[in-house]
TrEMBL record:
It holds the Pfam family Queuosine_synth. The keyword Cytoplasm applies. It comes from the Bacteria. SUPFAM superfamilies: QueA-like. This is S-adenosylmethionine:tRNA ribosyltransferase-isomerase. Keywords: Cytoplasm, Queuosine biosynthesis, S-adenosyl-L-methionine, Transferase. It comes from Helicobacter gastrocanis. InterPro entries: QueA, QueA_dom1, QueA_sf. Gene3D superfamilies: QueA-like.
Length: 165
């Protein structure tokens, strides 16, 4: 729904949870900013290192327009739609600007600037579930995923969504 720039190998899927009416409502009633993170194939690779800090994080190019920079720099509350948006915003807010992003968010490197996240339920051993754990903490993340499993939630790109506040 929000993908528009060529360069990514996959479209952002968290936005698939919005109907056109919901999208129109949100864009009419809330301040927003669009950013670009060109999703690379590394997003879908499993973490195989026993010590996750040794996982070689893939690079993805981030582009934050001057309008988006202004919005992000002046917003007291940031809700990200998707892990790609969160990763790109953290990359920008940590001072890396429009450059390749190697940022690996996990419980040992927690989210510092985003306050909320709308995302899908991600697969085990992925950098994406570790990003979720970087917001929630590992124990809370595992507990919530156990609830999702018990209630047969659908995982991955076209699965069920969760809102972390």
């Amino acid at each position: 729904m929000f993908a528009k720039n060529l360069g990514a190998i996959a479209a952002p899927t968290a936005s698939l949870h919005f109907s056109q009416e919901a999208k129109d409502y949100l864009l009419s009633n809330y301040q927003y900013a669009f950013i670009t993170l060109h999703v690379g194939a590394g997003t879908f690779l499993s973490v195989e290192s026993e010590d996750i800090r040794k996982h070689p994080m893939h690079a993805e190019f981030v582009e934050v327009s001057p309008q988006a920079q202004n919005a992000l720099d002046n917003s007291p509350y940031i809700l990200c739609v998707g892990t790609t948006a969160l990763r790109a915003i953290e990359h920008y807010k940590r001072g890396f600007g429009n450059a390749p992003c190697h940022l690996f968010l996990h419980p040992g490197n927690p989210v510092k600037h985003a306050h909320a996240l709308l995302t899908n339920f991600h697969l085990p051993e992925s950098t994406l579930i570790m990003l979720v754990a970087s917001m929630l903490g590992l124990e809370k993340c595992l507990a919530l995923y156990q609830i999702a499993i018990e209630h047969n939630y659908r995982f991955y790109s076209y699965g069920d969504g969760m809102l972390i506040l």
